[in-house]
Design brief:
Blueprint: E1 7-8, E2 14-15, E3 24-26, H1 29-37, E4 44-47, H2 55-58, E5 62-63, H3 72-77, E6 82-86, H4 92-98, E7 104-108, H5 115-126, H6 130-151, E8 157-164, E9 169-170, H7 176-181, E10 186-187, H8 205-209, E11 212-216, H9 224-234, E12 241-244, H10 246-250, H11 255-280
Parallel strand pairs: 3-4, 3-6, 4-5, 6-7, 8-10, 8-11, 11-12
Antiparallel strand pairs: 1-2, 8-9
Helix pairs in contact: 5-6, 6-11
Amino acid sequence: MNTTRTFVDAVGIEHAPADQSARIVSLVPSITELLFALGLGPQVVGRTTFCIHPANEVAKIQRVGGTKKIHMDRLRRTSPTHVIVNIDENSKSDVEEIATFVPNIIVTHPLTPSDNIGLYRLLGSIFNRSSTSQLLCSEFEKNLSATIKLGADLPRLSVLYLIWYQPWMTISPPTYIAELLALVNWITPDHQTEQRYPALSASSFAVDKADLVLFSSEPFPFKDKHIDAFAKDFSVERNRLVAIDGEMTSWYGSRAIKGLCYLYDLAKHISERQRSLSCRT
């Protein structure tokens, strides 16, 4: 009887533990960083152009295209045994093609901050890094508990989080980012659409109701000129518009541990600033 323990990914596929010769390609920037945090850097043989952390280490790894456009010939040349993908980041057609020549496709799809725990354990278990993954779990759980406790005392604000320009695009409530923002009482409006990342033109009512509009540094790198353009397009006061580090708020994996602290500190700062402004008026 086969007693090998298996581990289940986001779409229900079972994965047996890999051996030390596993060759890993990550098509998800945040997970590439997580693999290094797990001590798996020497086994990572491919990554996307957007996998930029840790910078010195990933610079040595073969790029196989972008998250949405994989160069299959480059991917083949890395001879991977495992490819890690994400439902939001990578196209289904690309994943299906990769599955024709790679034996193990690990699918991820964190939807809430607490899903990071399962992600750490999944990859740690498959690639024999359980002890390291448990350390990450403990660190994340500590920061998550603190953020929930402290965030409960912050004022409840309606927050519009922008991810793209031309068209202006935002996020819907059932997304990882929206669930993270909710930890500090920042609530994402319901845009009355099934789209997870809708265009703002279809839901501009949310702008008027928003206490804050956040401009993420990625996937679109918003600059001051874009924030100024938004203020003009929607006639919004500039003090309601705030730049935010998108890696800290949209990347799951190991970066999410520091991301929790970053988000709380930012929310507290904005709350104190608003309180100061209200006292002057």
